[in-house]
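sry for the spam today, last one i promise. struct tokens for design, 157 residues
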């Protein structure tokens, strides 16, 4: 029994020692632009890499052109009646991770965040005092990270 515990302990220590620590990007390594697209009742978000190496962001933290990923909760809408969190989008549990959005230097990726993600889009559209707080926390990709996106920007419908 003690032999099994010793092997388990050595295996756990080895796994911890060989993992690569996350190297977070600084705010000067990227731009994040948010445009209130009132005609489409949504916010258009563009993340642009200014880093010299590839930047990554977990997929569940980025609203892509198809909408919000499961588990997304990375935005707060401020209206004249107060703050609104994103409505629940389900669970984001992915064994081994949900994947990454990867940007090479100079690339950009676009996403959308519809007003309806917070509540009734008509009420939000009528509120002239609305503003979106959205942040990203990119990190430098490891060599085994996701492949880069295939174009300079994803399409917004």
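last one done:
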């Amino acid at each position: 029994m003690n032999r099994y515990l010793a092997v388990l302990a050595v295996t756990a220590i080895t796994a911890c020692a060989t993992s690569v620590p996350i190297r977070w990007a600084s705010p000067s390594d990227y731009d994040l632009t948010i445009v209130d697209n009132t005609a489409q009742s949504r916010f258009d978000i563009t993340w642009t890499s200014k880093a010299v190496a590839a930047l990554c962001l977990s997929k569940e933290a980025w609203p892509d052109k198809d909408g919000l990923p499961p588990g997304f909760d990375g935005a707060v809408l401020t209206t004249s009646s107060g703050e609104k969190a994103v409505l629940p989008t389900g669970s984001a549990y992915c064994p081994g991770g949900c994947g990454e959005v990867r940007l090479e230097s100079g690339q950009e990726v676009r996403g959308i965040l519809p007003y309806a993600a917070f509540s009734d889009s008509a009420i939000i559209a009528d509120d002239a005092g609305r503003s979106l707080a959205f942040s990203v926390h990119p990190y430098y990709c490891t060599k085994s990270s996701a492949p880069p996106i295939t174009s300079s920007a994803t399409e917004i419908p």
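Confidence is low (pLDDT under 50) at residues 1-18, 148-157. ok im logging off now
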